[in-house]
Every structure is written in C-alpha cells, then in structure tokens.
Specification:
3-stranded antiparallel beta sheet, 17 helices, 399 residues
C-alpha cells in the first residue's frame, strides 16, 4: 500500500469558528459561496436546505469520487454507533481490552472505545500522519503496540493512530470488514454505490482517512444526521440516541463529539501571558515561537483569522512547522491562548485540503465542499477556510 502524505494533524488547528458578516439576501449569500468556491478551485460544492438543492457546482472532474481525507473519521464513527444500534456493542465506554486482550495489562486497560472516538486515548502519536504511518503494513497492530504519552481519558489530543484501531473493532464485533459493514448497513440504504476505501497491506480499511466519495453521497450522510437517523423515505437507519452521541460535547474538549467537530457561532483568541514561557519550556523552535508571540496584544475573532496570521508569519510550509513544533510537542491552542466560544451551531466532518461536510440543524442546511489533491494546491486559499462562515451567512438569510 502506498499512502498519500497528508497533514491531518493540522485539522484541530484549522477547523475555525465562522466569522458571520452582516445579513444579506439568500441570492447574494449563494453568489458569495459560488464565487469563493471557484476562487478556491473547488471540485464540488453542494448546499441543500430540507433536502432541496440551493447550490450545486461541479468541476470537470465532478464524476470522480474525491478523497475525504480526515472527514473519513466521521464516517467511521457512524459504524461504531451502528454497532450500538445493532446490539453488537453494549457501550462506547467498553474497554478496548475486551476486544484486544493484549491491552488488559497496565494503563492501556483503562482505554475505552469512547476515548478512541474523542481523541483522549493517550496513545503516542506523531503529528504528521505520513511520517509514521505511511508504509506501515498493519495499522491496527501499529496502534496496539503504541506507547502512552498521557493517561487515558486525561487529555484531548488529535490522534490519527488511535482511530486506526476502530476498523479492527468494527470487524471483530460485526464479523465483517468496516467497508462491507457500512456498505450493507448505511451506504446501500442511502443509495451510495460509488466509493473507494484505501486499505493497509493487511487488508484493513483505514480509520484515519482513505474513503473517497461524491459530494451528493456525502451530503446524503449529512441529511441522515439532520433528520435524526431517518432516510428521506422514513426508514430508520440510526437511532436518535446514536445521532445525539455523535455530536454531544466531549468531556475534554468542546470542539469535538465522537469524531465530529462542533463549530461555534463565534470565538475569540488572545495570547496568554505565560505563552512565551510555555513555548520555551517545550523547546519550540525560534521561528514558530516568534510567529506565535507576534500575536501578543492582538485579538482574533476566529480560528481562521489566527491561522491566516500564523500562515503569513511562517510561510507556505506553516502546516509542517506547526505540526512538528506545536502539535508534535503536545501543545494545543488552549495552552497558549485564552479562548472564548459561542454557542455550537454547526456539526462538521472535515479533512485536509478543505474537505467539508457541514450540518446546520436550526436552518436544516447541509453543505459539502470537496477538492481533489493537486500539486498546485495553495494553502490556505485553496482550503476555502471561509466555507463555514459563508454557509452560515446563507443560513441566516433563511430564518
């Protein structure tokens, strides 16, 4: 198997709260999305309200499935709650050691399935997924063999390695590989027939990424959650309990549910007084330290604004620098910045390069943006980081 190198480690950084501008007309809001999507070289954009299409834009590559990158994780989470609904899993608080007995000794005995889903397992994890996981023949075994970098359940830390255990858990409990289980239980009932899923050399579908599908099919998954587990024909595929579990706030971070992101209406970031000492204590390199300290005295009204500032300071390779020097050293934005979050208004699946599925429950909006990977991709422009803000501006016009 040959992995594509991606920097999923940066997703916890770039998932930004939207900056909502002044209300406009629905037509103007749709035009803004279409214009910005084109500028960001999007291959597919689809926006629906209550199942009715408001905007659909496709590139010449529209018939191809698109690699969802880390948005795959959110689909994997659906498999876990389907196991609950099918009576194959008693609780997401079940210890992983009940499935993999090699974890019954030591601190790993305390790791639960929930901890794999909300990034609190404590498993050691290299920030850049490609650096450690590319070429690994068996990602389940690699995760099982990982050391702990923190106590289970104690710290939120975005973790690709831990999510690769989930396909193994699905196969153990369902008796089918993850892709086959989801095909029968979710995809076919939703009419999803065109997709691919990368596998490791052991034949196990990846949990951290690897699923490719079309925008309309990803939107169908979003619509299922919006409709509390019911298909458009009224068939129940997911229990309401499971839908609520996916999006409920994690005990260690308000940003996440179970591999689904929780996006607030607003955020504000201000550098902490002790940030300089914290960066020095962790041995953060001088360029990255200087870029972060340059935010002193400033107030950022969204994560997108903060990321744009850091990207300008660090240059085109800012994701690699941030992943190595901040995420890789166990630091989070909350360690460096005072953060104020508004009310959660959106739930999202997100992936590297700007693969987005966005659900706005109040206005019954589902929105998808996808982009094929190209050597010409220019971040942050082509990531279309303002997609959430643009869609929420549209949603406001639908009040």
């Amino acid at each position: 198997m040959k992995f594509t190198r991606w920097l999923s480690c940066t997703m916890a950084l770039i998932m930004a709260a939207p900056v909502i501008t002044s209300a406009t007309t629905t037509a103007e809001a749709i035009a803004t999305i279409e214009r910005n999507a084109r500028a960001a070289h999007s291959d597919a954009v689809l926006v629906k309200r209550a199942g009715q299409t408001l905007l659909e834009r496709k590139s010449t590559a529209d018939q191809e499935v698109v690699h969802l990158m880390s948005a795959t994780k959110s689909v994997v989470a659906l498999a876990i709650v389907l196991l609950l609904d099918d009576g194959k899993l008693a609780s997401i608080d079940q210890p992983v050691s009940s499935i993999y007995p090699e974890w019954k000794q030591g601190r790993k005995a305390d790791i639960t399935i929930r901890m794999l889903l909300d990034h609190t397992s404590g498993l050691q994890n290299v920030a850049n997924a490609g650096q450690e996981l590319e070429g690994a023949p068996d990602l389940v075994k690699l995760a099982l063999a990982a050391e702990l970098s923190s106590d289970p359940g104690a710290v939120f830390s975005y973790n690709n390695k831990a999510t690769n255990l989930l396909p193994g858990i699905v196969e153990h409990l369902s008796g089918q590989p993850l892709d086959a289980y989801l095909d029968a239980r979710l995809f076919k009932p939703l009419g999803i027939t065109r997709y691919t899923w990368m596998k490791d050399e052991a034949g196990t579908p990846l949990g951290m990424a690897g699923l490719s599908m079309r925008a309309e099919d990803l939107a169908a998954i979003g619509q299922l959650l919006l409709d509390r587990g019911l298909t458009p024909d009224g068939v129940r595929l997911l229990s309401e309990r499971s839908v609520a579990l996916l999006t409920a706030e994690s005990a260690r971070s308000p940003e996440v549910g179970l591999l689904w992101w929780r996006i607030p209406a607003s955020e504000r970031y201000q550098l902490k007084a002790r940030a300089s000492a914290c960066l020095a204590e962790r041995g953060v390199s001088a360029p990255v330290r200087q870029a972060l300290l340059a935010t002193e005295g400033r107030s950022f009204d969204s994560k997108a604004a903060l990321v744009a500032f850091l990207a300008k300071q660090l240059g085109p390779d800012w994701p690699q620098q941030y992943g190595t020097e901040i995420t890789g050293r166990g630091l989070k934005l909350a360690d460096l910045f005072d953060i104020r979050r508004g009310q959660t208004v959106t739930y999202a699946a997100n992936g590297y390069l700007g693969q987005y599925l966005m659900i706005v429950p109040e206005q019954r909006v589902v929105a998808v943006r996808l982009i094929h990977r190209r050597d010409s991709h220019s971040a942050p422009l082509d990531d279309y980081a303002s997609f959430f803000a643009d869609v929420l501006q549209l949603a406001q016009t639908l009040q």
